[in-house]
Amino acid sequence: MAILLHELVGSDPQRPFSPHCWKVRLALRHKGLDFRTVPVPFTGVASIEGGSGIVPVLRDGETVVSDSFAIAEYLETAYPDAPSLFGGEGGRHLSRFVESWSQRTIHPFVSTSRALVSIHDSLAAPDRVYFRQSREKVFGKPLEAVIVGDEERLAEFGKKLNPLRSLLERQAFLGGDVPLFADYIVFGAFQWLRVVTPWQVLASDDPIADWFERCLDLHGGEGRQVPAAA
């Protein structure tokens, strides 16, 4: 039985955008595993098997796992002879740090930038209603008001990326000479932006941009299977 990956999509089922789903896509390719994707709209997440109420969800035979990091840990245990996602136990713990940093540095910027409205506009009608109501409840104002000033906030966001930038000036990947799950965590956040908006937040000569291009080429160009937003 093929591995199934339930991943979040908008009105176009061929354009998954969730950063967490992209982490798992690359993790599966890293392990050399074949899988089939199951597109899920926002309003369908609650009905995914396993009842976790989140995406991604992975089914491998009789095993169902939700949460991107838990899926990576499962793949590492279930397929120990395939290339490691963590490079050892220390790498697993460091990946937790990278996840925490990414979700507190990159994700807040993306989710309050023009990408927020772009995601809304990419959804089917029922999902647009859900997305707008749920996000406006969190922010306490219309989506269009949330994103005001994102261009001005970009410079400060760029400064927050300096630790990542400094590392990638010295090595090809966060994992060193080869990518690890830590790379896929950060890649997922930038792929989120790439898929939903044509807005360029990285200069072409930024070491992070070079790293991102390398990541897009990994595993037969898995990241490039979905074209950038136009």
UniProtKB/TrEMBL annotation:
Keywords: Transferase. One of its GO terms (biological process) is glutathione metabolic process. One of its GO terms (molecular function) is glutathione transferase activity. Gene3D superfamilies: 1.20.1050.10, Glutaredoxin (3.40.30.10). InterPro entries: Glutathione-S-Trfase_C_sf, Glutathione_S-Trfase_N, GST_UstS-like_C, Thioredoxin-like_sf. Residues 8-83 form the GST N-terminal domain. It holds the Pfam family GST_C_7. This is Glutathione S-transferase.
